[in-house]
Every structure is written in structure tokens, then in C-alpha cells.
Design goal:
The protein folds into 3 domains: about 70 residues, Elongation Factor Tu (Ef-tu), domain 3, CATH 2.40.30; about 280 residues, Rossmann fold; about 100 residues, no CATH class. It is about 35% helix and about 25% strand.
């Protein structure tokens, strides 16, 4: 039986925080109701307990609260999410309340949103390829089931379009039920409506759960939003045996909210004003992704973050890179060239790509092919830089050939329509087609047997029959 206690001992308010004194048996993380003098109710969570003093963060903000007329009701339970299979196809607020005018969820159970850490011994290694339909990800930086692969973007770059495309198109080739949990933090109303409309119009909403925290919603709510989303994902993955892709957009807004709360608590700031525990806090979110031995389901995570001033050394992308397994980086220069999605292939990386590809997963030529594409594109980019400095006339014929390849690679492989869903077979075949402009002897990173098996078809298509 829950022991609900009421207090009228609010002593001070600072920003979104409220201090309540002379409180018995309060526990960190438990939720409270704050009843204002006019009878309205606001909700909060215990942030700190010191003897009989309790610091409460108020989700709706503290504006208009009268210290002398407010009653704080301690509910003796943590924030919980009501879960059942009916959450699929629904849109919730950042605090897990339905906002799609649908009925309230009749729960199978209520789950603490803070979750439990996965025992490292019980973790299973990320495995099996997830097809996103985007060539620069599937072909060169494959997403593997159970992986954490963030997207590093910048202000004004089309990360919203890319995340909507991934949410719409992603699927596990090995079979099994697939679901998408989408958490939006601090986004505009227009962006939120774009995501909702995109999933509804394509029918992808039927396998999705959305948690939307808008830019004008309280920053405090932003702290809870990813945890609500991951709680839903854990239920779908480990209770219903589904393969779940979690998209968190935008983690920079989450970290800004964390910094705001830290400043209100008068904590000693760390780098660029962020709290010293930012790394630990991010880890409590990112490390909830993965696979568990003996469980059929899995959680794969794609956090999205905007790098302030496109700075990769900023604390948010820097710490995210330490915790996650690679990064997909968006390029402003490619975006200016109207190449979309503007994925910067060379600095992007999926550390687990070798675990999800190969014969029986994608295709036997996948590994050799992406190595050769990387090498040829890198050399083509060097030739482009030389041409900028010295002029194209100073390039050798070989350099001109690689520069031509780089231009074709960006125009045909990197660039694709946001509604174009390329299968992995199409992506791999496109790679062979682009490489067919080189002689066999120049394809040093591909096994000769694979060249003999796959290349003749594309040489014949392009009118190049050389087989030297």
C-alpha cells in the first residue's frame, strides 16, 4: 500500500526547482503532485534528498506558484509508463500521456522509466544487418541489430528528413517483428507534425510509438522523454520479442535541459557549463540499447544530435562518441552542393559493421566492396583538393579519373531521394557499377574471384569489356 503524504512546507523556488522541508521518508526519483492555491495540479520528481529537505523539479515549471499556498503531495513511487501492445501506433507527450486524441492505454503493467542496467555478462553481441534503405549507411556504415549508431548533424542540415526516412524504411532482413520508437526532444511544432504526418501517410505509424516534447514544453520534461521512450522499447523488445529501433532526436536539446537544471541547482559547472556528470547521464540512456542472451528481441539506437557550430569536440558529440559505436556525420559542404542526404562518408564510421554483413547476412562481396569504394572515393577527394589548389590541368590522367569517380559517387551513390528505399542488393550493385570505370588491376581491395563473379555484368552494361 502506497503511503501518500502531504506537506505545506515549500520554502523556496529557483527556476524549475522547488525546496520542500520537514519531509519524512522521501526517496530520490519518486514523483510528487504540487497543488496550487487555485486547485490546479502540477507534477514533479524528487531530484535530491538531504536529511528532511527535498529538492523537487516541477515538470510544468514553477511560474505562478505561491510558496505559502502550495501543497506538495509525495506519491511514494517513481515515474512509470503504462505499457501494453496497444502503445503501437500511438503518439504520446514527453511524459507518456496520449496526445493523439486516442483512448488511454489499458496497461498490462506499469514500468519504472529509469529501467534497470543490463548485466554485462547477460549482453549478447550486436549481430544481424538492419536495412535502412539509405546507401551511405547500408553500403558503407551498416547498422547492426543491438548497436548504438548516432547521427552527428548541424543547425540547418536535414537530419529530420533522414531520421524520418530511417523510421519509415528500416527493417531487419533476418525476419521477426519490427517496431520503431521515436522520441523527439525540444523540436518545433512544425517538425513534430512533419514526423507524425510522414509516418501516418506511409502507414509506418502502425509499427511506431512516438514521444513528442516540443520546444515550448518545459525543459524539465525533456529529461524524462528519452527514458519514457526507452521504457516502451524495452517492453516491446524483451516482453514482446520485437526488434526495436529507437530514434532520439535531438540529444543536444536534452543536454541543454540538463545544463539548465544543473545551473538552477547551483552545481559546479564542467566543460562549457555542462554538469560534470554529463557522461554518466548520457550513458544511462545509451547503454539501455543492446541484446540480451536468451531474449529474441533487441534494441538498436540511433541518437541524433546537432553539433553547435559544427564542432565535433563539443561535449555532447564528444562524449556521445565515447559511449556509442561509431557515428554518421552530415556534411555542410555536400548540403550546399544539393546532395541529399549529405552524409560525409570518409569521417563516418560504424565500428560493428563487420558483424552485420557478409554471406548469409547481406552478400559475400559487401566487405571488399565498401573497402574499395572508400579507397577510390578518398583518392578522388584528394584529387579534387589538388585541382582546387593547382588547377585541373595540373592533374595526371589517373587523378582526373579518380576525381570523375568521386563526382559520380556523390551524385549517384551518396545522393538519393528521401522516399527512395534502396535494398542492400541495389546498393551493392550500384557500387559495382561505379567501380566498373576502373581496370581490374586497379581494384586492389577486392578479391579476384569476386571481381570475376560480379564485374562482367556491369562492364557489359557500361560498354567496357576490359578485363585486365
Amino acid at each position: 500500500m502506497l503511503s501518500i503524504k502531504e506537506y505545506q512546507t515549500v520554502t523556496s523556488i529557483s527556476g524549475p526547482l522547488m525546496m520542500v522541508e520537514m519531509v519524512d521518508e522521501a526517496k530520490y526519483g519518486h514523483i510528487v503532485d504540487v497543488e496550487l492555491g487555485d486547485g490546479s495540479i502540477r507534477h514533479g520528481q524528487i531530484l535530491q534528498v538531504e536529511n528532511d529537505k527535498v529538492l523537487v523539479q516541477v515538470f510544468e515549471g514553477t511560474h505562478g506558484i505561491d510558496v505559502n499556498r502550495s501543497t506538495v503531495r509525495f506519491l511514494a513511487k517513481p515515474l512509470e509508463l503504462a505499457v501494453s501492445p496497444d502503445i503501437l501506433g500511438r503518439v504520446f507527450s514527453g511524459l507518456g500521456e496520449p496526445k493523439d486524441n486516442g483512448p488511454a492505454v489499458i496497461p498490462d503493467k506499469r514500468v519504472d522509466i529509469n529501467g534497470n542496467p543490463i548485466n554485462p555478462y547477460a549482453r549478447d553481441y550486436p549481430n544481424e544487418f538492419i536495412q535502412t534503405g539509405i546507401s551511405t549507411i547500408d553500403g558503407l556504415n551498416p547498422l547492426v541489430r543491438g548497436q548504438k549508431l548516432p547521427i552527428f548533424s548541424g543547425a540547418g542540415l536535414p537530419h529530420d528528413d533522414i531520421t524520418a526516412q530511417i523510421a519509415r524504411q528500416a527493417t531487419v532482413l533476418g525476419g521477426g517483428e519490427f517496431a520503431v520508437v521515436f522520441a523527439a526532444m525540444g523540436i518545433t511544432f512544425e517538425a513534430a507534425q512533419f514526423f507524425i504526418d510522414d509516418l501516418q501517410e506511409t502507414g509506418a505509424i502502425e509499427r511506431a510509438v512516438m514521444f513528442i516534447n516540443l520546444a515550448n514544453d518545459p525543459a524539465i520534461e525533456r529529461i524524462a522523454t528519452p527514458r519514457f521512450a526507452l521504457t516502451a522499447a524495452e517492453y516491446l523488445a524483451f516482453d514482446l520479442d520485437m526488434h526495436v529501433l529507437v530514434i532520439l532526436n535531438d540529444m543536444t536539446n536534452y543536454c541543454e535541459a540538463l545544463r539548465e537544471i544543473s545551473a538552477a541547482r547551483k552545481e559546479v559547472p564542467g566543460r562549457r557549463g555542462y554538469p560534470g556528470y554529463l557522461y554518466t547521464d548520457l550513458a544511462t540512456i545509451y547503454e539501455r540499447a543492446g541484446r540480451i542472451k536468451g531474449k529474441k528481441g533487441s534494441i538498436t539506437m540511433v541518437p541524433v544530435l546537432t553539433m553547435p557550430e559544427d564542432d565535433k569536440t563539443h561535449p555532447v558529440p564528444d562524449l556521445t562518441g565515447y559511449i556509442t559505436e561509431g557515428q554518421i556525420i552530415l556534411s555542410r559542404s555536400l548540403h550546399r552542393k544539393a546532395i541529399s542526404p549529405p552524409v560525409d562518408v570518409l569521417p563516418s564510421l560504424s565500428r560493428l559493421k563487420d558483424k552485420g554483413i557478409g554471406e548469409g547476412k547481406t552478400r559475400e562481396d559487401h566487405a571488399d566492396l565498401y573497402n574499395q569504394l572508400y579507397a577510390a572515393y578518398a583518392r578522388g577527394k584528394e584529387a579534387q583538393e589538388l585541382a582546387t589548389i593547382m588547377g585541373e590541368a595540373a592533374l595526371s590522367e589517373e587523378d582526373k579519373k579518380y576525381m570523375l569517380f568521386a563526382n559520380k559517387f556523390e551524385a549517384r551513390y551518396v545522393s538519393q531521394n528521401y522516399y527512395e528505399n534502396r535494398s542492400i542488393q541495389t546498393t551493392l550493385d550500384l557500387g559495382w557499377e561505379l567501380l566498373s570505370m576502373f581496370e581490374n588491376a586497379e581494384l586492389k581491395r577486392i578479391d579476384v574471384k569476386l571481381i570475376e563473379k560480379y564485374m562482367p555484368k556491369f562492364r557489359k552494361t557500361n560498354g567496357n569489356t576490359s578485363n585486365e
